[in-house]
Structure formats: structure tokens, C-alpha cells
Design a protein that fits this description.
homodimer; alpha/beta; Ribosomal Protein L25, Chain P
């Protein structure tokens, strides 16, 4: 099943630039039966239908953030923890509004809580609205498929980048686009705009008919949960390049091109001295690159052509390198 | 067969930040039976045992670099081409010395030329020594397994980064390490030092017994060919972290850590104002991260602890982001 495969990809291969693994792995070193974090899927732990209530989280596990809570009786305190706790399962509840005391999980999230993670009434979880708000919550009731959470306390998710960056990515072949969505979301993009170009294999029509956009959205959600962001970046409906260029532009739009794409190509370093834009979009081509006509159309529409230099990278490695450098440029890294 | 699988991975998924696809794809647009570049493996083109002599390369194909040559009679001229021609198969001949008029290809390269690519006597290829030198050459003779090339003219490979950067990478699980080697080589690292850490699954002994180092070296070579570098980065024998820390250090050594790794952790941006080092090494941990003891050992050995911020990335995406940002910092991007 593709989704399961996807989720496993996302959950089992967490990687670690961030703060997530430290305390857990340290606990594992001490031989404690510690934690089944969001990023470790049930597939990874065949026998791991560990109910949350068996977690024995001690204050010392969170020395970094002074957060502690005991699950069985749901006592907790969060004195100085800067970010959301790394070891509680996270659920997405887009209907959650400020001031809500309880929230009902969407069907898919409820299924995941009940059937995959086997979390029960009284267990502590985390719930976020996809717009930057996150709360510790307790499972208040499970009635058939309805899972209701009681909101306990606000937690602060990791800061979002200061510059809203949209990745405008030409659709790649096979499941490479899944990887790009996953990594771009983990790196902190604000939105992903799939586009179809001359050398794309897909057309907008075939993309709309297929389930690929839905699939990318599921990948984005899994990636958000994994990376502890509380903002769910929008994966927009695919457009042709021309249609995209007609849309209201971001304050800075960059197209990554080959250095040979003419005299107007600038190195990324030219933006070192520049002002930080309020928002940005970076256009990245398909495996076969842009056509000259596409460079010119973009240039005419006010997009600046930039290059990562004379490197030949994998198509799905390009967005990682480009987003990382732009975030560094804009002080977000 | 793992190697074939590997090579296909590398060759079929070329990606494109660089200059490689432009002219070829443009030719394909015009319906010309144009080129079977290094990056397109025979697997990708089942019927594609196109002998080089069938290439109809016209001057116009290389408008960007004013290079032209005709294969059948091997007339060629390279007036202004800044870099090696993008459409000639490249072969690695470490024995090639300055001034050599001919060179015999190593066994594996000869097999690839004869049997996979079906290149014949009189065809034009490119040959590089792995130390930064590259030449156009003509196949002078094929006698059983011996392929001898006649060196024709020097070509200039794309520039190497100014700062020699060694990726000191904790061995990752499965074939993720292959991906890291491939991407790091494409991004331009000078060397890769695999290390074994507390949370690595492999030990130095099992790595040495297995064929993994050889495999990584083949990946590095395939990646060099693909990315048109003429320098083959060394993939060193695995070491433990402690042994690595005892080695003579690069002028700047950085360890990527979680932001929570203590008061001495610096953001990468602190190096914006710093001098560009003569060489550098970046240490990147395994899926499970470093232990506190490892941070401390590194710090005591003079390694600076840096962070990419509160991001949770896939383990194999971290090196791409880190290398790209360091190259940008050092003016190599």
C-alpha cells in the first residue's frame, strides 16, 4: 500500500539535525523501555503496540528543556520547555480553535491513534492545528471512531522560518516528488507549488486525475508530524509554468538554472548583501532541466535566474541544497 | 547485482543543477538521435547500444561553449569551451600521467566501454586521472580486454571548491550511506571519512569484513563521472570517532549537533564573518545522533559544535544541507 510505504519512509528514517533523538536514545542506552516517538512507526516495532500509559518519562530525560510529565495520572508541568515535547504522539486537528477545551480528531487521525498506536483514554498526546498552534492533550473519550481530546496546556512548537518560502517544483518522475515534499517540509517551506514544464513527464490533467496531489499532502502531513512543526505547508494544485508566472508574485522569485542560461544568471551569493524579502519563491526544474524559452519567460515575468554553480546534482537533492542555502541567507538557519 | 543497481541509481537519476542537460535535451526536443551521455545507462535504454560513431554532434549543440567535434574522422576543435564536453563518455584512468600520449584503461573501465557502452576503435571519449586532469581521447585499439586510448587534447573540468572539505559521516543504515556518498561527491567534497559511533549499527570490524567500503568507492567513482568532476574523492577506511579525533586535524572541524547539546553550540551563521579555512571537516552523526560523551570528546579535541537549528531532517538529507551551506559560506557556491 503506497501510503503505508510512505509513512514508513517518513517515520523510520528520521534523520537528525534536530533535537529529537538525544534524550530518547540516551534513555535507550540506559536500557529503559522508554518511548515510542512519532517518528518510530509501528511497522518498525512489530510488537510495539505500547500504550502511552506505559511510558516512564522522568524529569531527567528532558534535562534540556526542563519539561516533565507523568503519564498514568496525567500530571505534568512545563516550566521552561522551549518547544513541544519530543516524545508524545502528535495529532493533526485542523478544526481546533483558540479557546477550545476539547477537540474531536479527524477520522484518519483517530484511526491512527486507536488502531496503529493503540493509545487509550487517559493517555497524553499532543494536538496541533496546522497553523502553528500546539497543545498537550489527554484522550478524553473514544466512542467508536470518535476520539475526543481534552486540551491541557499550550506548548510552543519550534520557530518557523522568518521568510515564507514557497518551493515551486517541477514534478519529478516516480516517487522522487514524494522525497522532495518530505524534505522541503522538514526544512521548513511555507508552501509547495507543483508545476508542469516542457520537460515534465506529467501534464496538469494527468496529475489532477491521479491521486498524486493527495499523496503529496499526506507526505507533507507525515513530514510535519515527524519534524515537530505545527504549521502544515499547503501543497497546491499543479499549474503549468506559464500559469504560475501569471499569479501574483512573491516579493522575491528565483529560478535555479544552469550557469549557461545566459548573461543574466546570478550566483546565489549576490543576495548576501541584499535585503531579506518578506516572502520568496524558488523555482526548481525537472530532471531534464528548463528550456531556454522557459528561462526567458521567467525572466520576462520578473523572476531572477540564479545558479548553484557548475554542479550536477540529483534532481531531488537540488531542493535540499537550495532551500538550505536560502534559509541560511535569510538568517533562518 | 548491487553494483549495477547502484550505477543505475547514479546514472539514471542525474538531476540537474548543472549544465549537463541543456544541450542534450534541446537536441532531443528536435527529434535528433543525439547522445547517450554517461549519465544514461544502458539499462535505461534497452536498445541503446549506440556506438559513439553514430553521434551527430553539431556545433550548434554546444552553442554555450563553442565546442564542436565530429566523431567519425575525429576532427575536433575546442575554442572556448570552459569545461569538459557534456556529451562524451568519461573513463577513469588513474595511471594517466602528464605527457602520456596513450593510456590503457583499467579492467573495469575497459569492460564498461566495450560491453556496456559498445564503444569501438576510432570513437571519441574522455579520460580523467581522478586528480583533476581530463582529456579528450580516441579509442586507438581494443585487443581482447585491453583498451588503449590516444590522448587528443586537454579539457578543463569544472572548478573544484576552493576549500577542501572532508565529510566525516557516521555510517548510516542500509543503503543510505550510498546516497550520502553519491550526493557528497556530486556537491564537491574532497574526501569522505566513514566513522563508527556509539549509536552506529556497524562496527569497524564488520565494515572492514564486508564489501561496503569498496561499494562506496564505486559509488564515488560513478558519481564523479556523472557530475563531470575530474577529481575522485577518497573514501577512507572507517575509523571510530575516537581514532578520527586523534588524527591530524583539518584547520576547521565542525560537528553538527542538536541545539540542545550545551552552551558551546554555535549557529552556522557565526562563520559568516570568519576567515575561510584552508581545509575543513564536518562531522555528521548517525540516525540516532551523537551521545553527550561524543560531543564532549569532540569539543575537547578542538572540534566546534554547530547546529542547523531546530530542524529534524532525514539522516541522509543532513549532509546535503550542511555541505551546501558550508560551500556557500566559503564562496564555493
Amino acid at each position: 500500500m503506497p501510503v503505508r510505504h510512505l509513512q514508513r519512509d517518513v517515520f523510520v528514517d528520521p534523520g537528525i539535525a534536530g533535537e529529537v533523538h538525544g534524550p530518547e536514545a540516551a534513555a535507550a542506552d540506559r536500557g529503559e523501555d522508554f518511548v515510542l516517538a512519532d517518528k518510530l512507526s509501528a511497522e518498525k516495532h512489530p510488537g510495539a503496540s505500547i500504550p502511552n500509559s506505559e511510558f516512564g518519562i522522568q524529569n531527567s530525560e528532558f534535562a534540556e528543556c526542563s519539561l516533565s510529565f507523568r503519564i498514568p495520572n496525567s500530571e505534568f508541568r512545563i516550566p521552561n520547555c522551549p518547544y513541544n515535547p519530543p516524545s508524545v504522539h502528535r495529532f493533526f486537528a485542523p478544526a481546533l480553535d483558540a479557546g477550545d477545551e476539547t477537540v474531536v480528531l479527524p477520522r484518519h487521525e483517530a484511526e491512527h491513534l486507536r488502531r496503529v498506536l493503540r493509545i487509550g483514554v487517559g493517555d497524553t498526546v499532543s494536538v496541533f492545528d496546522g497553523r502553528g498552534h500546539e497543545f498537550l492533550a489527554r484522550v478524553a473519550s473514544i466512542v467508536r471512531r470518535d476520539v475526543r481530546l481534552q486540551v491541557l496546556a499550550r506548548v510552543e512548537p519550534p520557530p518557523e522560518p522568518a521568510v515564507d518560502l514557497t518551493l515551486v517544483q517541477a514534478v519529478l518522475k516516480g516517487d522522487k516528488m514524494d522525497d522532495v515534499v518530505r524534505d522541503a517540509v522538514m526544512l521548513g517551506v511555507a508552501a509547495i507549488q507543483p508545476i508542469v514544464t516542457k520537460r515534465s513527464e506529467a501534464t496538469v490533467a494527468t496529475l489532477l486525475k491521479s491521486a498524486r496531489v493527495d499523496r503529496w499532502r499526506r507526505v507533507a502531513l507525515a513530514s510535519v508530524k515527524q519534524s515537530r512543526r505545527a504549521v502544515l505547508p499547503e501543497v497546491r494544485m499543479p499549474l503549468t509554468l506559464d500559469t504560475f508566472l501569471d499569479e501574483p508574485p512573491a516579493s522575491l522569485r528565483l529560478m535555479l538554472v544552469e550557469p549557461a542560461a545566459g548573461a543574466d544568471v546570478e550566483p546565489l551569493s549576490i543576495f548576501r548583501a541584499g535585503a531579506i524579502p518578506t516572502d520568496g519563491a524558488v523555482l526548481i526544474g525537472p530532471e531534464g532541466g528548463w528550456t531556454e524559452q522557459e528561462w526567458n519567460a521567467a525572466k520576462s515575468a520578473g523572476v531572477r535566474l540564479v545558479t548553484l554553480g557548475h554542479r550536477t546534482l540529483r534532481a531531488d537533492a537540488v531542493p535540499i541544497a537550495a532551500i538550505a542555502v536560502l534559509q541560511f541567507l535569510w538568517g533562518d538557519l
